[in-house]
Design goal:
Rossmann fold; six-stranded mixed sheet; 7 helices; 41% helix
Length: 195
């Protein structure tokens, strides 16, 4: 039976890079596309990277129970996971992955405790800062906000079933691949039990 894998971790830890590499190796793994109220970044494509919606549309989706989870991220924009697509792919038996933030992972756990919760951790806080600065997609104020949020997120890693340290991309992809294709397996990653 297919089990949903929920992937979270601090900003700039490399979740997107990890998921892209995983899907290049395994195009049959279904990745949920989140809805967001933020504007597209350069190169982002509607329906591929996100569903870009207005504040009013996002509020309508919440009111109608169309989101599995949603959150205001970094105190600015709302993100959420459309429920119907997740349920459809799980029912079809597709290996399914959510790449979401900590708040969202907590909400999904409340309704889908049977999912496998995977936390992506940087090799060090210094490396996380280097990656965030290196992205060049945020101004100084936004970078500081994201670093404060990352500190809170890092402290929550113990809430997850499995932690993968994203030090070496190939190793991290192999660990995540095994978990998504065989969610009962935790070999190659540190096992943590949720209290």
């Amino acid at each position: 039976m297919t089990r949903l894998v929920v992937l979270a971790g601090p900003t700039a830890v490399g979740k997107g890079t990890l998921v892209r590499a995983l899907r290049e190796r395994n195009p049959d793994i279904w990745l949920s596309v989140s809805a967001t109220t933020r504007s597209p970044r350069p190169g982002e494509v509607e329906g591929e990277h996100y569903h870009f919606v207005s504040e009013a549309e996002f509020s309508r989706m919440i009111e109608h129970g169309e989101l599995l989870e949603w959150a205001t991220v970094h105190g600015r924009h709302r993100y959420g996971t459309p429920r119907a697509a997740v349920e459809e792919h799980l029912a079809a038996g597709d290996p399914s992955l959510l790449e979401i933030d900590l708040q969202g992972a907590r909400q999904v756990r409340a309704t889908m405790p049977e999912a496998l919760y995977v936390f992506i951790e940087p090799p060090s806080v210094e490396e996380l800062v280097r990656r965030l600065v290196g992205r060049g997609t945020e101004d100084d104020l936004e970078r500081e906000r994201r670093l404060r949020t990352a500190e809170v997120e890092m402290a929550a890693s113990k809430e997850f079933d499995v932690i993968i340290i994203n030090d070496d991309l190939d190793t991290a992809v192999q660990q995540l691949e095994k978990l998504v294709l065989d969610p009962g397996s935790v070999r190659g990653a540190s096992r943590r039990h949720v209290p």
